Amino acid sequence: MKPIDLRSDTVTKPTDKMRKAMFEAEVGDDVYREDPTVNRLQKYAAELFGKEAALFVPSGVMGNQISLNVHTNPRDEIILEKTAHVFVYESGSAAGLSGLQLNLIEGKRGVFTPEQVGEAIRPKSAYYMPRTKVIEIENTHNVAGGTIHPIENISAMRSLADKYHLAMHLDGARIWNAHVETGLPLSEYAGYFDSLSVCLSKGLGAPIGSLILGSADFIEEAFRVRKAWGGGMRQVGIIAAAGLYALENNIPRLKEDHEKAKILAIHLSGIESVEVDLDSVQTNILSFAPKAISVEEGIAMCAENGLLLGKGGIGKIRAVTHLDVSFDEVEKAKSILSKVFGD
Ligand code: TLP
């Protein structure tokens, strides 16, 4: 029997309709900016977020790293949360590719405060300190369990950024999930940031691809860096078509994924031998800590019973709901969790 795969929302496969859109995509050489489907996708996304321009890139990591590179010079510093994807899961690229130093702030459920950022900003006069250049926010926050960064907090960070002439970058791999849950327009989120990296290949179900959004000048620079890093793609409309299909069709349905994560979280909260913070289950990610067995044992035992899970933050198991897992499968997952962790 096919296992229920909750390791990530990146595991989804393109549907027949998405594949049809890919099959029929008009293509051209995107390094010459002549791929009509890529151009349509970039225009569509820029309008959706209310930004001047967008750039299609192969991955979320590349989206974040190009953006940080454009905002900075080597030896500059960026301020971000201690468990941010850019710090934990991007293979040290901020240091390796851009020579950046990361100033980490401990957040609560992934959210840090303007006061903490205020303390972390380096005084301009201190030539012996790195220059603070960027405040980076991850929304929703992966390791914290898909938590939403409150808009009031983002707005307060923007005021700080303006005061100290810093750029704001959003790792919006799952900004769609925050958007459907809060009802706030994508353009409202985007308005606070100089750059955004958003993923088409997570909950939206496209097989590949992310977008960088920003001003026309910013995207022009990002275009240069993408080429320099080997990310210039040719007849890539064949993939952009999947992204366009995902943007046009798959945003509202993310709400279902949030319901599925809640169903699982509520079920787990009734199991003695695991700890789950229900308040952190705000979107499609659920992190829980096994108390009687190790994370590795828990993941292995679930896998033996047909439920694939991944590692979350330290001491935690992660389950991510997505469009390839049905409500029926969520019920089956509940039984497997009860069997493994006892109820
Ligand atoms: N996250 C992956 C793993 O790398 C952990 C996942 O399965 O969740 N920002 C955030 C917040 C992400 O969660 C991810 C992917 C990325 C950026 C990077 O995206 P890709 O994998 O497309 O480079």
Report the end-to-end length measured between terminal Cα atoms: 24 Å
- Strand share of the residues? 15-25%
Low-confidence stretches: none
Question: What is the SS-derived class?
Answer: alpha/beta
* SSE succession: EHHEHEHHEHEHEHHEEHHHEEHEEEH
Number of helical stretches of at least 4 residues: 14
Query: Could you say how many structural domains there are in total?
Result: 2
Helix fraction, binned, reads 40-55%
Largest sheet: 7 strands, mixed
Mean pLDDT: 97
Q: Can you tell me the CATH topology of the largest domain?
A: Aspartate Aminotransferase, domain 2
Spell out which ligands are present: ligand TLP
The CATH superfamily of the largest domain turns out to be Type I PLP-dependent aspartate aminotransferase-like (Major domain)
| Secondary structure tally: strands | 13
Shape: globular
- Classified by CATH, the class of the largest domain is Alpha Beta
What does this structure look like?
The protein has 343 residues and is α/β, with parallel strands linked by helices. It has 2 domains: 14-249, Type I PLP-dependent aspartate aminotransferase-like (Major domain) (Aspartate Aminotransferase, domain 2, 3-Layer(aba) Sandwich); 253-341, Aspartate Aminotransferase, domain 1 (Alpha-Beta Complex). It is 42% helix and 17% strand. The protein contains 14 helices and 13 strands. The protein has helices at residues 16-23, 36-49, 60-71, 85-88, 93-98, 114-120, 151-163, 175-182, 186-191, 216-228, 237-249, 254-269, 295-304, 327-341, and strands spanning 4-5, 53-57, 77-81, 101-105, 132-138, 167-172, 195-199, 210-214, 274-276, 285-290, 307-308, 310-311, 317-320. A 7-stranded mixed β-sheet has the order 2-8-7-6-5-3-4, with helices on both faces. Strands 9-10-13-12 form a 4-stranded antiparallel β-sheet. A two-stranded parallel sheet has the order 1-11. The chain binds ligand TLP. Ligand TLP binds at residues 8, 10, 59-61, 85, 89, 138, 142, 171, 173, 199, 201, 210.
